[in-house]
UniProtKB/TrEMBL annotation:
Signal peptide: none annotated. It is an enzyme of class 3 (hydrolase). Its EC number is 3.1.3.48. The lineage of its organism: Bacteria, Bacillati, Bacillota, Clostridia, Lachnospirales. It catalyses: O-phospho-L-tyrosyl-[protein] + H2O = L-tyrosyl-[protein] + phosphate. InterPro entries: Caps_polysacc_synth_CpsB/CapC. GO terms for molecular function: manganese ion binding; protein tyrosine phosphatase activity. Keywords: Hydrolase, Protein phosphatase. This is protein-tyrosine-phosphatase. It comes from Candidatus Copromonas faecavium (nom. illeg.). Belongs to the metallo-dependent hydrolases superfamily. CpsB/CapC family.
């Protein structure tokens, strides 16, 4: 779990089916855990219209990588993240940094981009309030 809370960071392989995602969300919520889908922008099954919303309705929270904000309007991942950000479907931003030597995060650049895409209240929620609630094991 994340910080010994009821939140579980849930990562799938990129070719996961929607049914597998849905089943995992159901199992975690039935066991009274709060699944956080990590790197949601990577899963092609979630590109289907309404798929992400179905998982959210089933109890999932959604995390995407900061770097997904560094694309352009021609980048389908950037457009997908931007659309779900505007719809209020995202709960967290994160990195995929496992060590500073191989993949250093570009958080500063991404936050600058995020400031142009979201209101200050949304930024505070995504970057401070929601992570703080996880640390305190409080409901989002």
């Amino acid at each position: 779990t994340l910080a010994e809370s009821s939140y579980v960071l849930t990562e799938f392989y990129t070719g996961v089916s929607f049914k597998e995602c849905e089943r995992a969300v159901r199992k975690f919520t039935a066991a009274r855990y709060q699944p956080v889908i990590a790197h949601a922008e990577r899963y092609s099954c979630l590109r289907r219209k309404g798929a992400l919303e179905e998982l959210i309705h089933g109890g999932a929270l959604i995390q995407v990588n900061f770097e997904s904000l560094l694309g352009s309007v021609f980048d389908p991942t950037y457009r997908w993240v931007k659309g779900h950000l505007r719809e209020g479907n995202l709960s967290f931003f994160g990195t995929d940094m496992h060590n500073i030597g191989n993949r250093s995060p570009k958080i500063g650049k991404a936050v600058k981009a995020l400031r142009h895409l979201a209101k200050l209240e949304e930024l505070e929620e995504l970057l401070w309030e929601n992570p703080g609630r996880v640390l305190e094991d409080e409901e989002l």
